[in-house]
Amino acid sequence: MAGLAMPALAAGLPVISQVYGGGGNSGSVWRNDFIELFNRGDAPVTLDGWSVQYASASGSNWQKTSLSGVLQAGQYYLVQQAAGAGGTQNLPNPDAIGALTLSGTAGKVALVNNDTPLPCGSSCALTANVVDFVGFGSANNAEGGAAPAPSNTLSVLRGAVGCSDSNSNSADFSTGMPVPRNRATAPHLCGDDGGPVEPVQARIHDIQGRAHLSPLKGRQVVQVPGVVTALMSNGFFMQDAEPDNDPVTSEGVFVYTGSAPTVQVGDAVQVNGLVTEYRPGGSNAAENLTTTEITAPTVRMISHGNALPVATVIGAAGRQAPGALIHMGHGDVETLGVLVPSVNAIDFYESLEGMRVQVPAPVVVGPSNAAGDMVVLPDNGSATQTRTPRGGVVVAAGDFNPERLTVVKGVATPPQVDVGDRFAAISGILDYGNGDFKLLAGELSGLARGGLSQERTRPQLVNELAIASFNLENLSAGDSAGKFDGLARQIVHNLQSPDIVAVMEVQDNDGAANSGEVDAGRTFARLFQSISQAGGPVYQFRAINPLNGQDGGEPGGNIRQGFLFNPARVAFIDRPGGDAVSAISVQQGSDGPRLSASPGRIEPANPAFSNSRKPLAGEFVFNGRKVFLIANHFNAKTTDQPLFGRFQPPQLGTEPKRMQQTQVVAQFVSRILQADAQAGVVVLGDMNDFEFSPALGILKAAGLRDLVENLPPGERYTYVYEGNSQALDHILVSAGLASRTEYDVVHVNSEFANQTSDHEPEVARISLPPLVDGSANFTWQASGLSYNRATGIYQGTVTLTATNAMAGPLALALADLPAGVSLANGNATVANLPAIRLPGSVTAGQRLTVTLQFRNPGNVRLGYAVRVYSGL
């Protein structure tokens, strides 16, 4: 019987390497039970259709968890099981998830090459479909003797890091601290005898290799020479003083000691240890690249006080990063073969991982953030295509400026800097973390301030309607006076007190406190007080309180959009009925299209806006002209894959939802423009996407003009992220307003280390002079009306005769229409009257005959007065 079982237990197949049933129990760190598998062979194994199964120590009722995927040689596989009530940490990302509740002291676990529950009780270890079997504690079945009993704080672990397999659970397993390992854990190869592979003598460039993953991953290396170049809290960097002169292979590596190292910079050492690939990033680690490390090291001191290897220059005088292409391939770069540093920026930086580098004449393109990080370009940005007039660098379709380099605290701490500040040079160690390559600062020299100052736009003219968009970055009533005063100064002085300010990220009165509060009246009141103290107008606001916790953003904050407006310059049309859950519609009124409620929300129940801000629409009147505003804050890009991540090109997981959101808004705009092709529509806000993105393309296809595209390419930005200046905030206008509009982004925040908001405000000034009633320059005569029974339309004509010349454009408007009667062929709303646009200017004596069509469902007596307006 033992002979029949041997093929399932032979070396080269997966084995059960760890069992832990104390998850969530008293004293446990981990919240879940787990079973761990390990491929101790030298070839991959497909687990599709397999299962892990569990039964109690004396039971025959087997429960199962299905498996799938490929387990490479030396790779671990983590199967998460049921959670308990305790524990403090989640398991690493599991490779499979089940709901089995394992005993913390005794039980049986089987790895089975099918998905059918075992039919056996005390003789399962020898069943043909069982690939591996572990009985532990007082189990009535095991391979050989049972493994020792674990506890709430101990698991049973297979020896030799999973390689030991004598077909005796008692010999192969011991108890130890639970160490859950998944497929992202560094592989560990086993020798032919079941023990670890023999160590190999190597240099750093052998360890780093010519690809993203080390060819020696999972191998023990010995006598690796290097000079210590930088100390960290948990290890040190070292670099080979005798490089191989192959630009593809890095000469630097991190040695992970787990605590403060005992070596000093300049020490020449030889290191023994395990080559691993560490993937930083916590729960999002799977999308990041790895960094090659030597772990569990022993360090032999050779000498002290050695000169450090010469730093590699990144720039025109040394090695220059590709200027546009992050990676030419598609897929997981760790599987795409040899690095091509001259073509792929991600390969360029990988080839310098762990090495000393120097950036000559760096210019700051990303200001210091809260962590003190800054972003620079080498050589004063001379190799970069689209620079801003203020010193930054702008993204473009297909070019996210991979020549940027983030500088973070290393031995030296970067100073607080703004965009345009410069250094003579920065040197340090090239590292990777949080989806980006980073320069650990070693030395910064020659700081020269660029003297960046806040911009101020011009004031609007008397007949210009100034409309601004401004993300206030989670403004709540509990924020500091400094933040309110800073925003007020920017609105009053830098934006010159716009007539309307559409604002985003206004929180409820108690901010992030999750109290159920949704009203923001006190937040707006504090802002208005600061605006008044700054010398601004007495604004009013319109907004709609969201349902608690339904609009995304900071938990408890209940952010929303709102309209601030100056009633001395512009009127808001209030229509009742708008609330958090009711969808507004476009109606046809006697004065043209109108909203069913103002302010109101556009399709708040649409799944596109689930856990996201709902568009806010409102009607305004300026100089007798109606303007529709739609304020937006679309879902953010926070979960998109990083630019320098493992997968290329990065997957934009948030983009489909933004496209759904813009589609809803575009359809709403189309309904307004179908009712009046020349209607004034402004769609604005924090769109969280670029002017060249598919999401903004949907809005433009609906007949809107994105005003940021009126600016030169180097000025198209409202936000700076990781050193990339980019347009996330937009003001789009309908065709009837586009030729009348001047646009400006006012740079007061995103380029500075000290920011009042992380977004720039933007302002559109729309020329809307008062309409001129030129009716006295015309005589008119109306014909009789005919009735079409099929269409229900009354039709007649009006003949206008000009007594004086008038410059166009002109419109014929109808006053005093009876209630219930509408102008069916009207194509404009002028002075709140239904109207028809006339072709061009007229000369004295010129006659125009205009066809009129009416809907008169009540068949009332139909009369009207004719008005002619210019100045449209």
Word description of this protein:
- With 872 residues, this protein is mainly beta.
- The chain folds into 5 domains: 2-176, Lamin Tail domain (Immunoglobulin-like, Sandwich); 200-303, OB fold (Dihydrolipoamide Acetyltransferase, E2P) (Beta Barrel); 312-445, no CATH class; 464-767, Deoxyribonuclease I, Chain A (4-Layer Sandwich), CATH 3.60.10.10; 772-870, Mu homology domain, subdomain B (Immunoglobulin-like, Sandwich).
- Helix content is 10%, strand content 34%.
- It has 9 helices and 54 strands.
- A 7-stranded mixed beta sheet has the order 19-21-25-26-24-23-22, with no helix packed on it. Strands 31, 34, 35, 36, 38, 39 and 42 form a 7-stranded mixed beta sheet that branches.
- Strand 25 and strand 26 form a beta hairpin.
- Helix 5 (481-494) crosses helix 6 and helix 7 (655-675) packs parallel to helix 8.
- The longest helix has 21 residues, at 655-675.
- The radius of gyration is 35 Å and the shape is elongated.
- The chain starts with a helix and ends with a strand.
- The relative contact order is 0.07.
- Residues 1-12 have low confidence and may be disordered.
Question: What is the overall shape?
Answer: elongated
- Give the distance, in angstroms, between the N- and C-terminal Cα atoms: 97 Å
Tally the helices: what do you get? 9
Number of beta-strand segments: 54
* Broad CATH class of the largest domain: Alpha Beta
CATH architecture of the largest domain: 4-Layer Sandwich
Low-confidence stretches: 1-12
What is the CATH H-level superfamily of the largest domain? Endonuclease/exonuclease/phosphatase
Strand order of the largest sheet: 19-21-25-26-24-23-22
GO molecular function: catalytic activity
Organism: Chitinimonas arctica
Protein name: Nuclease
InterPro entries: Endo/exonu/phosph_ase_sf, Endo/exonuclease/phosphatase, Lamin_tail_dom, Lamin_tail_dom_sf
